[in-house]
Amino acid sequence: MKAITLKQIAEELNISVTTVSKALKDYPDVSKKTKKQVKELAKKLNYIPNASAVNLRTQQTKTIGVIVPTTVHHFFATVIKGIIKAAKKKDYMVILMQSEEDVEQEIKSVDLLISKGVDGIMISLSNKTQNFDHLEKIKNHDIPLVLFDKISKITDCSKVVINDQKAAYEAVEYLIKKGYKRIAHFRGDLNPQVSIDRFLGYKKALLNNNIEFDPSLVYICNNNDDFNDGHASAKKLIDMHGKNVDALFAITDMVAIGALKYFNDNGIKIPKDIAIIGFSNWFMSSVITPTLTTIDQPGYKMGKTVFKLLYKEIKAKNVDIPYETIEMKTSLVIREST
Amino acid sequence: MKAITLKQIAEELNISVTTVSKALKDYPDVSKKTKKQVKELAKKLNYIPNASAVNLRTQQTKTIGVIVPTTVHHFFATVIKGIIKAAKKKDYMVILMQSEEDVEQEIKSVDLLISKGVDGIMISLSNKTQNFDHLEKIKNHDIPLVLFDKISKITDCSKVVINDQKAAYEAVEYLIKKGYKRIAHFRGDLNPQVSIDRFLGYKKALLNNNIEFDPSLVYICNNNDDFNDGHASAKKLIDMHGKNVDALFAITDMVAIGALKYFNDNGIKIPKDIAIIGFSNWFMSSVITPTLTTIDQPGYKMGKTVFKLLYKEIKAKNVDIPYETIEMKTSLVIREST
């Protein structure tokens, strides 16, 4: 028996081959009526799709993809651990790709995951990502997508985040309540949302507490090497402001620890001369001397939640379910550095 | 024109379909003469292999796979960074899988990489891997394989390692030369070669320096949580030996730092009461108080070397090239903890 082709179905219904293909793959831009007609005829004619063209949502691969900027950051390593743990329970394998903060690499990773065939994709964006066509591409392939931590606000999909602005606000307000007035901020790169949000939280806490915002107390850490960024910025901070700074809110624990190392090595007492708050509650923050006050960012739990959302979409298959944004709770962990 | 099948080639040459298939894929168990006959006839008849059956070494995917136990260990994260850096230069994408120290997961990861199609595979084995059939499977699929760090000695393939026994020997001998006599060892699990080798190096250094080996000074850390393993073992060590122990050689920096935290929190002075040496030179070892003496294990450089070996095999395609074992240099980094 000669195999039935898409062309035959198209001719029979007097529609284009593309429409037939899209209808079989449940693309949203084909009407329900057409989809029904195409599917019924395909069934009647015993149409067998070409293996390589099989839609991913109908033929599950039991494989999902994750793209993160790096695994050298302990936070991402713990998120991945959470994703793998949750995926394993549902018998899913996890393919991991690293963008290394390179947009080109992130786009290529998306292409690769699509071409290799995965049931869903989870991404934490690189710091440089400003165009989101590759995310739309995932959606156009009807592959469930969940963004986490470093997300794109304008992309319509499920997301797992923390409230960076609120967390930063609380950290800085805590410093102010403790009596610190000249509070520096070591921020991340200009672009990523988490960096913007933490900076905004810092600024808002100052303004709401009648402390003048001094831009010369803000340093940008964007060399993809948090420890050394923190260390170098601490030197610049002290060179410029000397004793006219009494606290520091750093965008990550690693940046904070880089600064802490500089202060420790240069006889600047923590918290007497300068207090420090980090961000993420990396376990090393409870081991270093002095131990670091920080914001707990639940990486492992976030990973499990990311998978949960993705799995829900995979299971829903071709039924449209509403996208969700889940905000993970953070908390301020007070230690010796403040 | 009707497509030529393997069967037709087999009939023409009076050999089995399997032999034809293997010959086209350059399997080592088919004679050169047969390979030549098959390939010539296939070319003459214009045989087009089925896409899904195309041999990976002839049709390159420009994708390679890495399987590591975890990325929470900074060492593996840096090895991966090195692999990705080197791969990118040659325009290769890297797919990462984590076994999470689970043999089943490691085997499934191998199967997945084979089925998704990669040009080569790099593995650092889980601590529990004792059967190596999945490694043979990779070789049977003619996919280049390079093992690194946690390897199988009996698997015939290229490897990148460090001399764990020698490195451990040097660390312990250094302690002995400094006058320490009651040297404890926090070792890894019983199975993995690195754990065995570091233990043997420890033991040999004692014996060669006329210090009696005391098994009660050796503790096993095998809960996949180095920091807490080190912390708990330190407690047991002090509970059992009190002041009758003056130094500790720990299998990883993380185990060492767990122990250091216990000593710091319990008024046990480092190095006055007890000296500590770690293993890996994780950058945190130079940040904690006191800074940690350790063995530098060049993860990033190892990653680059692993890719170099794999790339050589990929490029050699169907020509057999001799397997290589590259030993990366380690060195003792002396800091405040000894």
Automatic annotation (TrEMBL), chains A, B:
User: Pfam families this protein is in?
Assistant: LacI, Peripla_BP_1
Is Translocase one of the keywords UniProt gives this record? no
Which keywords does the record carry? DNA-binding, Transcription, Transcription regulation
**InterPro entries, from UniProt?**
HTH_LacI, Lambda_DNA-bd_dom_sf, Peripla_BP/Lac1_sug-bd_dom, Peripla_BP_I
Q: Does the keyword Kinase apply?
A: no
What is the superkingdom listed in this entry's lineage? Bacteria
Give this protein's Gene Ontology molecular function annotations: DNA-binding transcription factor activity; transcription cis-regulatory region binding
Residues forming the HTH lacI-type domain are 4-58
What the entry lists under PROSITE patterns is as follows: HTH_LACI_2 (PS50932)
PANTHER family, A to Z? HTH-TYPE TRANSCRIPTIONAL REGULATOR GALS, LACI-RELATED TRANSCRIPTIONAL REPRESSOR
Q: What is the name attached to this protein's record?
A: LacI family transcriptional regulator
* Species the sequence originates in: Flavivirga eckloniae
